[in-house]
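TICKET: design request
STATUS: open
ATTACHED STRUCTURE:
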């Protein structure tokens, strides 16, 4: 089977000591592509460095809604434009209303979000979307911007919002934490296989509480999707890999 992880954070310091082994384990289970999502200037550059060392790793450059509001956003947009030929997506971007202080900054977050969406449209790249506690605002903004190539990463919105994403033709990516969160099991039952992708969000969202997640665990997600959809793991893997190839032009 050919597998893909469309959202990981191998630039995390939690991979500094054993990234070679992490990549090797991913290859061993059939992972052919890991899309690593940068979250700001420092991590975008580290993502680039990792992709230059491992051919399996592809770049997604973004500006996470938390921690970047005081940065020189226009300068980073220029940097991303200068690296557009090796950029497969714009992300991780979006909105985050977790906690009162972050919600107070919602207007500034929305300004950053719209700038990044416009960059994605200009470069004709898909977007990888973060929407913690801000699902409806994220959807409204993307609908207003006419976004077509969208990956809703770790989407935690209610059923009606999941269906709205599907109606918009967007993709939803499923993490290995599906093994212990009913929400993602429900999401998989709603979303057509043709609009589904696999992610890990490594080192987060592990299938085992307290353990570091890693790209090899997309195999866990494939197994759970197959069980819920009542089809073979091979069929799920092939459909999802083909979805990703079309979306990201891999």
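STATUS: resolved
RESOLUTION: sequence designed for all positions
ATTACHED SEQUENCE:
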């Amino acid at each position: 089977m050919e597998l893909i992880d469309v959202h990981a954070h191998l630039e995390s310091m939690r991979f500094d000591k054993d990234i070679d082994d992490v990549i090797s384990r991913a290859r061993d289970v059939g992972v052919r592509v890991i899309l690593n999502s940068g979250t700001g200037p420092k991590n975008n550059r580290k993502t680039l460095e990792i992709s230059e060392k491992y051919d399996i790793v592809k770049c997604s450059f973004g500006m996470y809604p938390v921690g970047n509001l005081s940065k020189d956003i226009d300068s980073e947009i220029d940097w991303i434009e200068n690296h557009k030929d090796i950029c497969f997506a714009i992300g991780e971007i979006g909105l985050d209303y977790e906690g009162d202080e972050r919600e107070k900054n919602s207007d500034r977050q929305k300004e950053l979000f719209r700038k990044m969406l416009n960059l994605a449209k200009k470069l004709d790249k898909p977007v990888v979307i973060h929407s913690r506690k801000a699902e409806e605002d994220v959807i409204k903004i993307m609908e207003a911007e006419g976004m077509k190539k969208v990956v809703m990463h770790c989407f935690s919105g209610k059923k009606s919002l999941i269906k709205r994403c599907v109606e918009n033709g967007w993709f939803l990516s499923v993490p290995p934490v599906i093994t212990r969160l009913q929400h993602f099991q429900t999401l998989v039952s709603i979303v057509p296989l043709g609009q589904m992708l696999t992610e890990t969000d490594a080192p987060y969202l592990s299938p085992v509480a307290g353990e570091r997640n890693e790209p090899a665990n997309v195999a866990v997600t494939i197994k759970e999707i197959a069980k819920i959809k009542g089809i073979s793991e091979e069929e799920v893997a092939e459909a999802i890999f083909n979805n990703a190839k079309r979306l990201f032009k891999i």
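CLOSING REMARK: Residues 106-123 form the longest helix (18 residues). Strands lie at 3-8, 31-37, 57-61, 87-96, 127-132, 150-153, 171-174, 196-198.
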